[in-house]
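for the writeup, i need someone to sanity check this before i put it in the appendix. the sequnce is what the collaborator sent (i think, or maybe the updated version? ugh). structure was predicted straight from it, no edits. if anything looks off just tell me and ill rerun, i have time this weekend
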Amino acid sequence: MNTPYYQYDIALLRKTLDTIREETAGYDYKVHYAIKANSDEVIVKTVAENGFGADCVSIGEVRHAIKCGFAASDIAYAGVGKTDDEISEAIDLQIGCFNVESLEELHIISEIATSKNAVANVALRLNPDIDAHTHHYITTGLAENKFGISLHLLDEALMLSKTLPGLKMRGLHFHIGSQILTMEPYKLLCERIKPILDKAKNGYGLKIDYVNVGGGLGIDYENPLVNPISDFKGFFNTFKENLVLPQGSQLHFELGRAIVAQCGSLITKVIYVKRGLEKQIVIVDAGMNNLIRPALYQAYHKIENLTSKSSDRAVYDVVGPICESADTFAENLTLPVTSRGDILAIRSAGAYGQSMSSHYNMRNDAPAQYVGL
């Protein structure tokens, strides 16, 4: 197959899904897959077939989820900028719930639903002001972030959700960030949720059908082959041990990266090895248009030379062909001696790789190849 391409290990994806099911067995938990992490049709269909819900952030993702086998009633629709047309279509599709991110959005959903003589299920996405200690681009739960309703507006939000026509208040929603590797932020989230639940139930007489605590569980980018499955046991146990919900309430999760990141690798070929004055530069045929995370987040991805037979090692920068200095996958990386034509694997690329790709410089998409189907 011509390079570059994404290689997806579907057997590992299924094993990951099985692990999640095992860790949630016996509890009234519902796990949604965050489609923004990877919308590849084979991957999304595999997740749907395993009984998960879908977390969507655009009407395009809602349509795609339904096309790939998710029931509309299992879709949670989030996003700070839902347009009137998107809201209208989602109501017509009878999705499970809108995760509402502002007071104004509550009013708009109410107006549109009322005009249709419909009732829209809503959950309030609240901003708990918790520092997840991750990259500032993927921190979503701080007071200054654009996401969610500030806690100082909680009373008004609860009253509106109770009194506005065309709405059925179903739950509360939180999401504090992504690539979170310690359980402390989640423990703090549990502490923040308790008084909010009490106010909703006892202060406003609202029945909370579910609490959605988002996702954000990280993966091991350093040792993906050693630790291909995230610490789901520690993640779910944190909520089992620290959050008690009212009787009849369900706990929801929205996991993306932790489900799909490790099952994907970007496979690329070495075009040239450029010998500079002080370093050697490996130029590959994949670029930041295929995998933007290193350029956008300064993210680390483990890179392996799959074909070099050399026992000697050398230090390289690994870069792509895009006309941007940011098009760099790694700097000062030690690899077996690498030559033109060698094949490299950029690991842990199953999340926010293909889904964030572009045609910048008018370059083609990297197609998908599947193993373990």
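The domain at 262-371 is CATH 2.40.37.10 (Lyase, Ornithine Decarboxylase; Chain A, domain 1). Confidence is low (pLDDT under 50) at residues 134-143.
thx in advance!!
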